[in-house]
Amino acid sequence: MYTTNASRGLPRHRSRHVAERYTRWAMRGLVAALVLTLMWLVLAFHLNGQWMFALLFLVLGASLAVVFTKRTLMSHRYIFPAVAGLGVFVIFPLLYTIGISFSNYSSSNLLSEDRVRGQLLARTYQEEGASFTFQAYREGDRVRLTLEREGEPPLEGEADAELEAALEGATRFISGPLDLDDDATRRIEIEPLHQALDAEPLEMREVIAARDALQALRLVTPEGLELRMAGLRHFAPMLDRYEASDDGSLHDRRDDRVLTPDRETGFFVSDDGQRITPGWPVAVGLDNYKRIFADPDIRGPFMQIFVWTFAFAGLTVLFTLVVGFTLASLLQWDQLRGKAIYRTLLILPYAVPAFISILIFKGMFNQHFGEVNMILDGVFGIRPEWFTDPWLARSMLLIVNTWLGYPYMLLLCMGLIQSIPRDLYEASAVDGGGPLTNMLTITLPLILKPLTPLLIAAFAFNFNNFVLIALLTGGNPDILGASTPAGTTDLLVSYTYRIAFQDAGQDFGLAAAIATLIFLLVAGMSLLNLRLSKVKV
Predict the structure, then answer these.
(1) Is 279 helix (H, G, I), strand (E, B) or coil?
(2) Residues 160-171: pLDDT tens digits?
(3) Burial 237-258 (b: 16+ CB within 10 A, else e)
(4) Omega before 296 cis (within 30°)?
(5) C-beta atoms surrounding 54 within 10 Å
(6) Is residue 250 classed as helix, strand or coil in its secondary structure?
(7) What is the pLDDT of residues 461-485, one digit of tens each?
(8) Which of 18, 89, 207, 318 is 20 to 30 Å from the Cα of 387, by its Cα?
(9) Which of 238, 247, 276, 258 is nearest to 127 (CA)?
(10) Residue ranges of the alpha helices (H) in 419-465?
(11) What interhelical angle do 296-331 and 492-501 show, nearest 10?
């Protein structure tokens, strides 16, 4: 006899099968929707010329379809989200950064060559000596414009000849009724004017009030010459500056020169060697890496920052270990009362968000109004320049970072010390050993080995401690003579950030090369950490 579902009168195993069937169809529909979305992203990125992102989503969509449609790969469905996230947010950005490091990608080399060519061909210029004075006349609730050419200079070049042909001798024009309350860009046809209007023109204050609408007008003569506002009383013809040639070069009609595309540098170059911006990204091989070590204006600051980065990370780990280990040893003292209160107070800096503590310390170390200098001035009569002297700025960073990092070491050391057998301390007491002897001969040697991988991890974290540098010193004071934005307190990671986003040229290629070197260093530390942890790699 079957046990039925009370609501539907179906056997329990049949209702379970129906639910499983609906769940499978829902999952298949979800997977199909995700695949279609990814394919749409592939098409969108491909049409925009972003082939790397198109390839990423193509691989992601294809792997999603294969894993969730083949029964033999059913066991891989559970780890697919994690693997996909690793690929999208870790592996792809890493490969993309490495790829950029072999290019001249920067703020002046962002667009493709076709888009650069299109931008240059869209540029116009105002022909000198061919401006038109204009007057605005009220006609009901609308306005008419009259234009009259100022002088007729002799023909000197191809552009002047083209201008005269477009005007066909006409020197005065008039527009139809215009609404100057509309400041949208409009093309308005104008006609030759044969007699003056019998009306008073608008006053200058009215012209100024309607300036936005006038600047949006594109007045077109019957021959197709376009006139734009060039002053409060002038319109002028705007001519195409560049003209494309069959060989791919551009002719600069204003300066009468030829621009040739240089696909090694990614710029159009004039006859006299001048580069015309913007440019386009091109592969430069190892040039960015060579610049780091060969260019003295980059090599000097880079090596200084490189050494300081290692010193900062190493000294931070040392100072936090010493403070944390000392406090952990004191908290294990049997005669100490109120241990719970002391533990809570000493761990409090770890509970406060780091950026809040950093900003508080920034105010405390203020050279003019900070509490630190007020105390030092009152006690010793000195007011150190924490933010302008390189060595004092570095010392301040180490002090603040020690404060932020010692609670972590305190917790680690407390846990490891508690795992040490008490028999060892009792045997040491029998032999006459004191607290200092126990610390140096028992406690420290026994916790140092299991602590080593964690110290390496702390070193790697402080090696890339961007938040501390950005909020406390910003990398300042600057290194004099550097061709890139570099400071004496910069770490490699903040130095990379400043090159990529704070330099006027925004040299992403050089920044990516430094970021790749940072990745190799941190990867080496991680590999060493795994080796010391006795994990097979």
Answers:
(1) strand
(2) 555 555 555 567
(3) bbbebbeeeeeeebebbbeeee
(4) no
(5) 18
(6) strand
(7) 999 999 999 999 999 999 988 888 8
(8) 318
(9) 238
(10) 422-430, 435-438, 444-463
(11) 140
